[in-house]
Each structure stands twice: as C-alpha cells, then as structure tokens.
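Tokens as discussed.
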C-alpha cells in the first residue's frame, strides 16, 4: 500500500522484504496480457448483475489484509499479516448491509481472504488466484482456492511503486542517508508512478482478477463478475504548521522535520497514485472493474498532524493511522479509546533500531545508546558491507529466508501508517455503498414467516387481564430506544458497548401498572443462558413494521396461547426462540422476573482449547475462555492478560466485541 508498504521496507519490518524493481521500461508482454480476449469477436463485456452475493474474495496488499488491526491478539495468518478488523472481515459479519444488497436476505456470504501484506501486483496474479472450490481457510497464508465468488474487493499498486526510499530519505533517515536526498527519492517515486511498465503491470493484474472471477463460475452470467478496487488515503494534514517541528527519524539519523511542504509532497504522491489506479480501472470497466472513491474525505480530521492532535507521537484515538509509537501489545486505538487506554510502549521502538544493529554488527553487542548524529552506525567498521539501504534490506530478508512469522523487529512497526480498525470499518461501508450503486436491486422473495415456538406457560403466579396487556405489548415492542440494543449473554457484556458503539444488555425489560391491584406486569426480551453464544438485536426485522410485528407476535403468543380458558386471569409464560427468551409475567410491585444471582457472580476462565480450530495457527491462540459460574453454559473468548494467567482476565477485554 503506497507509503504504507514502503514503511515496512524502510524500517526492515518484515523478513519478506525484497528488492523492488524500478519500472521505467515499457513492458509490452504485460500490455498484451492485460488485453487478452477483449478484442476477440467472441468477447462479452461486463453486464450489471442481478444476483445475490453468496461469496466474495478479498485480494491485494496490506490495506486489504488489515495489517495491524488491532494489535498482536488480532493478527493471524503469519507473515500475510491479516487482521481481525480488516475491512473484509468487518464486511463478512454485517448482516444488515448484505441484506440491503440481497433482497432482505441476512445470510452472510462466504469470504475467501487472500490479501497478503507486501504483495506486488504480479504476486496477486501469480499467488492469489489459484482455481478451486471455496475453503474456509483465512488463516492459511498461501495457495487458498479462489472459490466461486460473485465479487472481489481489493487494493493493489502500492508495493509496485517502490517508495521505501521516500520514507527513508524524507522521514525515518534509516540508513546511509547520503545515498539519496529526499528530493531525489520523491522524484524517483513519481517517475515510477508515471512509467508505462507500472501502468501495464497494474492493468494486467486487474484483468487477471476479472478473468479469474469469470472463469470461477460463481457469477451468473459470468460477465457480471465485479472487481471493486479501493483507493488509498493521504496520511497528513498538510496545512497546520504545528507539526513543522516534529521529527520521526530513527535515533541515529539527522533530524527530518514533518514540515507542511514535505507533508504536501507526500500527499501528492498518494493522490497521483490514486489517479493512476483510477485511470487503469476506467480502462478495464468492460471487465467489470469498478473504482471505489470517497475514502479520502472520510479521513478529514483523522490524519497525522491534525489541529489539536500534533503531539510528537500522534497515538490518540482520533488519529486513524497507527503511529510507530502505538502499543502493539494492546488492541487500544490510543488515548481516548474507552475500551483500552494502553496506548504506547517505548520498548518496542528501541528494539526495532536494536534489531538493525544486531544484524549489521553480529556478536559485537553494539547498542542504540552508542549511536548519534555524529556517529551513525553506517559509519562504523563493518557497515561498509551495506553501502545502501536497499542492500541492507535485501541481506536481512535473505538471512531469514521464508521463516514463519518471526520478524527481525516487532510487528508493531509493520503496521505503521496503516489504518486502525475503526477506520477500516469505514472502508467496509464505502464498499457496501459502491455495491449498492453498481448492482441491480433484488426483490425480496415472498416468504412464510418462521413458525413461532409454542409458549411455556406458567401454572401459578399473579393473574392479570388480557386486553390491557395487549396495549402494553404494543407499547413495549414499538419503543425504538430498544431496537438497536445488542442482546448478549452476561459474560459478553464487556464495557456495555459494542465496537461500533451500540449499547449492550443481557435483558431488556419494562414494567407496567396493573390498575386496582398491588401487582405490576413485566414484559421482557433476554438472552438464554442455556449454552447459547453470539448476540442479536432487540429489533428483528428489515423495517419498522416488521420489527414491531416480530416482537408483538412472540409476546402475544404467550398472552393468547396460555390459560386459553380465561381472559381475566392470565398468568403468562415464556417463549424461547434460538437464543432469545420472551417473557410475559406479573409480580408484586417491586419484584423481579429476572432476579440477579446472590452475591458477586464468580467469573472463571481457562486457556482456550484450540485443538479443533487449527492448533498453533488458530486465531484463538493465547486467548482465554470465560464464563460466570451461575451460567456455566454461556461462554465467550477473552484476550489473554499480560500475566499469561487466565485467572487475571479483564471482564471487559473481549476478543471480539461485536
């Protein structure tokens, strides 16, 4: 991803670092490949689809892989560096948005997740498009089957542009800063963006994805397969001068200030890269390739160097990119994050610089404290083996070979300049909006409503009249304050808020007067404690009327289906439907229909058993499985505490706070 991926190279951040070719020569083979078939008399151009999306595939580089979102407990797939809050992962769980595309059907489509941090456009063509039936193997790094998707989502091009020298020369001053000036690095990067060869490589890759989608057979007709290509995002506010005195260079480099001039020049590179990608997409529209714009403006107020957010580290929650100072050991998005304020870790920064010294000067125990502007490490005896920064990167990568995700420096720096999980949620929404615009609407099929389970009727208790309660049920079910509440088991309450800001509750109840009695009526919707997992919205339906009807039909079934021989002496009961428990019951005033357990409920945890979810490659490695002893069948997954002892688990540290 443009400067994002360059950041990985500029700090020797991953063992897969490679020499990036400069693309100044015209590549006629790539040009021919990209045009394969489009001039044939039998070629059929793209047609806008009228088909449900049952499967989609995520391809490309780290912007799609979701590198760094959010922290070490959410990373998976080894050096593919995918993140639990990558935008494809967030799309894959958004039933409401898929329903809006699929005629009201909330069935979640399958996701094939092939995006790989550091991949070039040629890698996308060669390594991410293997034919084969779908397999749910998101944790596998390479060679997953393409499946039969109707849609591909992707970012590509950033790694092809060879911008590692820009960050080294202009910001980090990582190694031998005299080999290239900042001006020269920017000029060379722009020349790469302008090159015919880069144009051909990217065109070929987009065409390869489109043809792979057509050939896979998931789209009907095959020419309706769509490839959505997201833009990149500029990193800096380039107007506010308060950043002009801030420097992010490594300890031993001469100071490189984040001036408004430099920030503007770097933003222009991103803008020019986006312009190139947009032009290529427009040239491949006949293959169903669609450019997704609109991201950049969403980042206004959330870039580095925004007014009011210009302290040196820039690790606050309102900054949507990860800083090199952000704490990778935490899922916190920085200062102000209500779920976790653990924002930075000084040790991880020094260890990155120390890793370079350990490689260049093996066995000499040279330390960061020995470096200075007057005595940078590239001037020390032994450093002459690496006359350029690229030669150092190549040597470091070669020394590691294809070792699994063991990196030369902390993964905290791999994610520098990458979006945080909250920001990636906006990427998902922009893609959903684009799909709504470019797909024909699907009419919801006429469906019989699901059968309502029979009620479990009370055989004793406080009696109440039927007619009055019908009105109370309507009032309860029509209360829009309840509709967006996320109903969860008690163990999943966490902070009381989901990651998207919805309020959580284990039960929603309302109490109504019963005139002429000393009793009151309780209506409620709660989460079953009988081994259920997950969550659901109070309001179940696609519109206001269906949400009200769904709730009323369950409560009215209790009211009218119990004590059928009377309308004056109803006792109520419950209905359990999946994990939802509906209740109609009267109690003496001040009573409870859901009394809390006596005393402080005991919270217990144990290390998560990953034997059935991939062993040491499981996404749940180093997590804890927890429950309240009063509800032993309701469990959830929590982040492993720093102590490594599950007995110390924080009740708010849910692994997935959906």
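Sequence:
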């Amino acid at each position: 991803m443009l400067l994002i991926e360059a950041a990985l190279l500029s700090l020797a951040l991953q063992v897969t670092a490679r020499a990036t070719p400069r693309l100044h020569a015209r590549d006629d083979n790539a040009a021919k490949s990209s045009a394969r078939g489009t001039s044939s008399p039998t070629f059929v151009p793209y047609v806008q689809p009228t088909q449900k999306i049952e499967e989609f595939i995520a391809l490309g580089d780290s912007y799609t892989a979701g590198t760094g979102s959010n922290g070490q407990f959410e990373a998976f797939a080894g050096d593919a560096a995918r993140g639990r809050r990558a935008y494809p992962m967030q799309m894959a769980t958004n039933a409401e948005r898929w329903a809006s595309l699929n005629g009201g059907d909330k069935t979640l489509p399958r996701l094939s997740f092939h995006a790989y941090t550091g991949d070039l456009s040629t890698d996308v063509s060669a390594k991410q498009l293997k034919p084969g039936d779908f397999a749910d193997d998101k944790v596998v790094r390479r060679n997953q089957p393409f499946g039969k998707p109707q849609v591909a989502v992707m970012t590509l091009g950033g790694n092809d542009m060879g911008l590692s020298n820009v960050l080294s020369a202009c910001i980090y001053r990582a190694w031998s800063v005299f080999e290239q000036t900042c001006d020269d690095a920017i000029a060379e990067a722009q020349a790469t963006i302008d090159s015919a060869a880069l144009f051909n490589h990217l065109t070929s890759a987009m065409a390869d994805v489109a043809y792979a989608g057509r050939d896979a057979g998931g789209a009907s007709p095959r020419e309706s397969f769509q490839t959505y290509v997201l833009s990149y995002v500029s990193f800096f506010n380039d107007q506010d001068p308060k950043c002009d005195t801030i420097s992010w260079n490594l300890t031993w480099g001469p100071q490189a200030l984040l001036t408004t001039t430099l920030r503007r020049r770097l933003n222009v590179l991103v803008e020019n890269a986006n312009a190139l990608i947009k032009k290529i997409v427009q040239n491949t529209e006949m293959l169903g390739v669609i450019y997704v714009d609109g991201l950049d403006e969403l980042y206004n107020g959330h870039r580095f160097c925004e007014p009011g957010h210009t302290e040196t580290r820039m690790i606050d929650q309102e900054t949507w990119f990860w800083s090199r100072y952000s704490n990778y050991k935490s899922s916190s998005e920085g200062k102000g994050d209500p779920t976790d304020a653990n924002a930075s870790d000084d040790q991880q920064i020094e260890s990155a610089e120390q890793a370079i010294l350990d490689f260049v000067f093996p066995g000499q125990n040279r330390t960061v404290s020995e470096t200075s502007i007057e005595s940078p490490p590239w001037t020390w005896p032994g450093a002459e083996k690496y006359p350029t920064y690229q030669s150092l990167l190549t040597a470091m990568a070669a020394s590691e070979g294809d070792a699994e995700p063991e990196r030369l420096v902390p993964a905290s720096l791999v994610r520098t300049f990458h979006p945080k999980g909250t920001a990636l949620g906006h990427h998902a929404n922009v893609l959903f909006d684009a799909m709504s615009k470019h797909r024909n609407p699907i009419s919801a099929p006429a469906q019989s409503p699901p059968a309502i389970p029979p009620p479990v009727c009370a055989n004793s208790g406080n009696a109440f009249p039927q007619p009055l309660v019908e009105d109370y049920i309507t009032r309860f079910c029509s209360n829009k304050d309840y509709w967006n509440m996320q109903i969860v088991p008690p163990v999943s309450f966490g902070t009381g808020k989901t990651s998207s800001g919805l309020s959580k509750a284990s039960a929603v109840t309302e109490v109504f007067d019963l005139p002429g009695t000393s009793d009151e009526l309780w209506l409620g919707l709660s989460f079953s404690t009988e081994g259920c997992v997950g969550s659901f919205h109070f309001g179940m339906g696609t519109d206001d009327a269906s949400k009200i009807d769904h709730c009323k039909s369950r409560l009215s079934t209790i009211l009218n289906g119990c004590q059928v021989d009377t309308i004056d002496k109803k006792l109520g009961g419950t209905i359990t439907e999946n994990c939802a428990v509906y209740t109609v019951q009267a109690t003496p005033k001040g009573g409870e229909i859901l009394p809390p357990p006596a005393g402080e409920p005991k919270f217990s945890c144990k290390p998560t058993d990953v034997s059935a979810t991939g062993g040491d490659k499981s996404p749940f490695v180093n997590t804890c499985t927890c429950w309240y002893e009063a509800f032993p069948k309701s469990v959830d997954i929590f982040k492993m505490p720093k102590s490594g002892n599950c007995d110390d688990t924080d009740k708010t540290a849910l692994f997935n706070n959906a």
